[in-house]
Amino acid sequence: MSKVVFNNKNAVFFQSLKGAIDSYFKEKNLKKTGNWALYSKTIILIAASIALYLIAISFSLPVVTTILIGSVLGFLSACIGFNVMHDANHGSYSSKSWVNDTLGLTLNALGGNSFIWRHKHNIIHHTYPNVDGIDDDIAKSPFIRMCSSQPWVPMHRIQHLYTPLLYAISSMVWILFQDFEKYFKQKVHNTELQKMKTKDHVIFWISKVLYVFFYIALPILLTGWQQWLVFFLSLHVGLGFTLAIVFQLAHVVEETEFTFAPLSETTVIENEWAIHQLKTTSNFSPDNKLVSWFAGGLNYQVEHHLFPRISHIHYPAISKIVKLKCEEFNVPYNCISSFNLAVRSHFRFIKLLGRKPVSA
Ligand SMILES: [Zn+2]
User: Which of 53, 105, 56 is nearest to 84 (CA)?
Assistant: First the structure.
């Protein structure tokens, strides 16, 4: 297991920033959790998804319509993940823990597992983003080389061409394979998974059985296997591609940094925790309200990594304070102005990492 320690001795930046953010919420008399803007999004996204699902399994549809419904449902499912599940599993959706726990299970309804994800995301990814050896989100080797410390193989020469295909199948691999791998190994990449209680095991298996019933057995029974196959594949292309691209634009672009943490060694990061978050994270398209609405504030990834327990609904407002504080302390505030530029930056970076390193 890799070990990473931060140099938190002079954590003055985060202390100062946290003070300014707390004052903002106090002055405005706002709760840090969600509000009606978030609740209305939840209702719209879930209602639209259920409606599309019911149409897809209730009628005999032309192939093009099935592809359209499946991929839009996949996209909306990813948006439920960003807007509802992500806030809920961080405990920032509501001040009531039962609301967060219940809405966190929207991940199980989409095929994943809330318990495993909380450990993988809240603890591992949020503490050690872009730390090769720990952060499971960048552990796609040998298929994708996402940082220079990962070994190079010849197929990486064309990884910028095939990564979109891997993104498109990523949610299928996650739901049907990686969750089970993590469950049976009780490990997330190189890190032991938190101990699962009986309740967590029961929820894991019931959710996976329900997933097979609602997403595979019932549609096949009602519409036949051909329509189901088109629907299921389209749904996952929409879901997997949307999830992957939003993650990649936030962490794997030319502006972000990576650290290597070798197994069985202690790696010291010469920064306070918050500065590490700033160096490894990037915002994209912050002024595009449509992107912000659908991406659940994950285009404000800098604010999210600094304040994961504040609901994403507040990120556009607090981003102004964060940006000013970064300028004051002369620390990076990575932000790519548009979605298009961020996509280009990601693929340029992936193409660069696909080149044979001098030492390989
Ligand atoms: Zn998060």
Answer: 105
Query: What pLDDT, on the 0 to 100 scale, is given for residue 198?
Result: 97
Distance from the CA of 223 to the center of ligand 1, in angstroms?
37
pTM value? 0.93
Burial class of residue 43 in the structure, from the number of CB atoms within 10 Å of its CB (0-12 exposed, 13-18 middle, 19+ buried): exposed
pLDDT at 360: 59
Pairing status of strand 335-336 against strand 283-284: parallel
pLDDT digits (tens, 9 = 90+) for 180-214: 999 999 998 888 888 999 999 999 999 999 999 99
Residue 226: the pLDDT is 97
Residues of the chain with pLDDT under 50: none
End-to-end Cα distance, the chain? 25
Distance 153 CA to ligand 1 centre (A): 31
Gap from CA of 60 to ligand 1 centroid (Å): 39
Question: Rounded to whole angstroms, what are the CA distances from 265 to 2, 3, 137, 143?
Answer: 6, 6, 21, 25
CA of 359 to the centre of ligand 1 (A): 35
Distance between CA 100 and CA 118 in Å, rounded? Answer: 12
